[in-house]
Amino acid sequence: MQFNSNQTLTKVVIIAAICVFSTQFGVTVIAPLLGEWVIAPKIPHPFLVSGLIISAFALVSLALNIPGGILSDKFGRKPLIVTGLLLYAVAAVLFPFSKSPYDWIFVRALQGAGAGFFFPAVTALLADLTNHEERGHALSVYNMGLGVGLAVGPISGGFLFHIYGIFMPFLFCAAFVLLSAVLVLLFVHEPKRKFDEKEQEKKKKRKGLSLSLSASGRKALMLCCVVVFFGKGVASLMSGLFSPFAVDDFEVSEEIIGTILSVMFVAFTLLQVGFNRLMKLTGEIILSIVGLLLCACGLLVLYFATSIPELFIMSIFLGAGIGAILLGTLTLASKTAGERQEGEVMGIYYTTFYASLASIPIVCGALSDIFSARLLFLGYAVLLIILMVVVWRVKP
User: What CATH number corresponds to the domain at position 351?
Assistant: First the structure.
């Protein structure tokens, strides 16, 4: 890994990747267990309950992302990063003591509070340390850590639960997150951010948010938010609905479900470097459109799927698509931020990110109970194709 600046930047980027790995491991380790928890007990409306478990995380993050970003602009990135990680650790400890799927909703909400503080601060830190040329590379490494966490979580959750029981998956979660917090405390030193005091005084006099972007910057940020809402919605859909769908339609085990989801995030991770190169040639918006196309193809495969191998093909399409969308939108959003506004812009970005995670599993879960999960996958694919056309026509 090479950056145009010094070894300190490389060290911080690697630590950021480790941190985001630990958080995403904690998020997805429960994914293969959801089918057993909501289908086996024969509870009413299992798809809706599964969606609520996933959405509880996002609902709390949704409320905290912009405040968390603003606080990181004011007090620094490091305190918010560590606070978020510690909340993840507490949630991991509480998970195995939950007695019902409804208890998981509360614990996921606590985990979401950690995300609300962590994500705007850590991505704003990377924006502080990099120029526009370095940022895509830094964020691709960061996304690789995110992808590895997403990939390892489901397969680990399935196998660790099957072999050792409910406590072991969450013991690993807590250990990874606490290690990440220690690395941040010991090795991350924030740069001093310079800013114009007169400009800050002007911002204090303005009503509402202090965000000040150019017209093109606002348009770019708006497009990022729209694309990441529906693009992240694909991952939300899979996290909340795929496990019950696979158990109900294919009668597969937690290990197989975890492996399929892990393959999706392996594709996400392995393609980050290639997507960064493509982004330099075509731009962030075009990369995001490519991601929407790949996700639509994956959902169409899932709609027609009748065998386990087709589910693995689907997971590769979706992993590649989600990876392209997140890298393209995150890089473009970070470039729209002005001086001392990185945290606030990242807060807006992640508010949209978690609004997707909060709303789409609930809405799609309810629709799946009314119609069918398979038909829902087809409808979402059509929605992504329409979004591709809209983004292409209005891109800056």
Answer: 1.20.1250.20
Assigned domain for 105 exists: yes
Token digits for 114? 């950690």
How high is the pLDDT of residue 128? 87
Reported as a single tens digit per residue, the pLDDT across 209-244 is 455 677 788 888 899 999 999 998 898 788 778 878
Across 174-201, average pLDDT: 77
- The span from the CA of 251 to the CA of 274, in Å, is 36
The whole-number pLDDT of residue 39 equals: 58
Alpha helices in the chain (DSSP H): 7-28, 34-38, 46-75, 77-94, 101-129, 132-164, 167-187, 197-205, 215-237, 243-250, 254-270, 272-282, 284-304, 308-336, 342-370, 373-394
Query: Do residues 21 and 145 lie in contact, with contact meaning Cβ atoms separated by under 8 Å?
Result: yes
Contact 289, 392 (CB under 8 A): yes
Statement: residue 204 has pLDDT above 50 = no
Which band of pLDDT confidence, cut at 50, 70 and 90, is reported for residue 193?
A: low
Angle at Cα 138 formed by Cα 136 and Cα 144, nearest 5°? Answer: 100
112, with CB counted inside 10 A (0-12, 13-18, 19+), is buried
- Taking only the tens place, the pLDDT of each residue in 61-120 is 888 888 998 899 888 899 999 999 999 999 999 988 877 767 888 888 899 899 889 999
209 inside domain: no
Block residue for tokens 């007169």: 198
* Rounded CA separation 336/341 (Å): 9
Q: CA angle, corner 242, sides to 237 and 247, nearest 5?
A: 160
Q: What pLDDT score does 95 carry? A: 84
Residue 202 neighbours by CB distance under 10 Å = 12
Q: Are 120 and 65 in contact (CB under 8 A)?
A: yes
* Measured CA angle at 349 (ends 48, 333), to 5 deg: 140
> Does 29 map to a domain?
yes
**Least confident span in 20-29, 50-59, 367-376, 381-390:** 50-59
pTM: 0.74
Q: Could you list the residue range(s) of the whole structural domain that residue 389 is in?
A: 7-189+214-394
Pair 241, 47: CB distance under 8 Å: yes
Q: What is the per-residue DSSP string for 156-208?
A: HHHHHHHHH-SHHHHHHHHHHHHHHHHHHHHH--PPPPP--HHHHHHHHHSSS
Q: Evaluate whether residue 170 is within a structural domain.
A: yes
- Number of independent structural domains in the chain: 1
